[in-house]
Design a protein that fits this description.
Purple Acid Phosphatase, chain A, domain 2
Length: 302
């Protein structure tokens, strides 16, 4: 990215990384290789801006064990050399429990000095004004100091710009930003969508997932944000390879959802006549394809 001498970023805000060795079903490329290439690109950007900190708002790994020693070693080989400030997400924690963090690949990176867990250790930016604090999945934000400026929060929490269902309030990004007025900047993870909301010069940034992990993300553009105090953030997109998300998988997912919805509607219509619930299920399954049968039987253990 060309440098802008009028904009001097102090942070690079990333999203959920989900490091894993197994590729999601929708991808036709090597998922881990693509992820590692992004980390090389990100490390170069960090160096370009004088090794400013990178924010990781949780789910650094797709599974708390990290995918094995080889995966962790390959990640460490390309990991940015400047400061990386992170909090653990639910995928980073056994049983989504922060008290078990000692067992995790996330803690491996912390113990080896490759990440700072700001849910435990606050980090002061080079300007001597801004301090970064965090809270892991399931935790609530710490109360900031009395001063009203200079506080930054990294939080792995489900937040959104548009509700997932009508009437939903918990997680509304604008509401969350208003509730935590002691923070100039809030960086959130968990939701893989990308959005920014602002309240004056205060901002909440949810960069979204760094990798496209589902067929529904075929149009997702992974990005980071550059932040400078008192200015709107600037969005920068990762270089990505076109065509690695299968449109065939997108259509298959849509058709599967439609078939499952139709099956549920038939059950609700009461067409089955057998006496037991399991017998009714088997009657309905006779008209369905093997994919639907497998899913239903696994869910119901029949």
């Amino acid at each position: 990215m060309p440098r802008d001498d009028l904009f001097a970023p102090q942070l690079i805000i990333g999203g959920d990384l989900h490091t894993a060795d197994l590729a999601p079903e929708c991808r036709s490329d090597n998922y881990l290789d693509a992820l590692l290439q992004k980390e090389v690109w990100l490390g170069a950007m960090q160096h370009q801006y004088g090794d400013i900190p990178i924010i990781r708002p949780g789910d650094v790994f797709n599974h708390w064990a990290g995918g094995g020693t080889e995966v962790i070693n390959r990640l460490l080989a390309v990991w940015p050399r400047g400061p990386v400030l992170a909090v653990p997400g639910q995928h980073d924690l056994p049983q989504h429990n922060v008290t078990l963090q000692r067992k995790t690949a996330f803690q491996n990176l912390v113990m080896n000095g490759r990440m700072v867990d700001v849910a435990v250790t606050p980090f002061f930016l080079a300007d001597g004004i801004h301090v970064v604090r965090g809270c892991a999945w399931g935790q609530q934000p710490p109360a900031p100091p009395v001063r009203t400026m200079g506080n930054i929060l990294v939080w792995h929490v489900t937040t959104w710009q548009k509700p997932f269902m009508p009437g939903q309030l918990n997680g509304d990004a604008e509401r969350l930003l208003r509730m935590h007025k002691g923070y100039d900047l809030i960086c959130t993870g968990d939701n893989h969508q990308t959005f920014v909301v602002a309240d004056g010069i205060r901002q909440l940034v949810n960069a979204g997932s760094e990798m496209r992990m589902t067929a529904a993300q075929i149009d997702h553009k992974p990005c980071v944000y550059l932040w400078q105090a008192g200015k709107p953030v600037k969005q920068v997109f990762f270089p990505i390879s076109p065509g690695v998300i299968s449109r065939e998988k997108v259509e298959q997912a849509r058709e599967k959802e439609e078939r499952t919805s139709a099956f549920v509607s038939k059950l609700e219509g009461g067409d089955a006549i057998a006496c037991s619930f399991n017998d009714n299920i088997e009657v309905m399954l006779k008209e369905e394809n093997s994919d639907v049968c497998t899913v239903v039987r696994e869910c119901l253990n029949v």
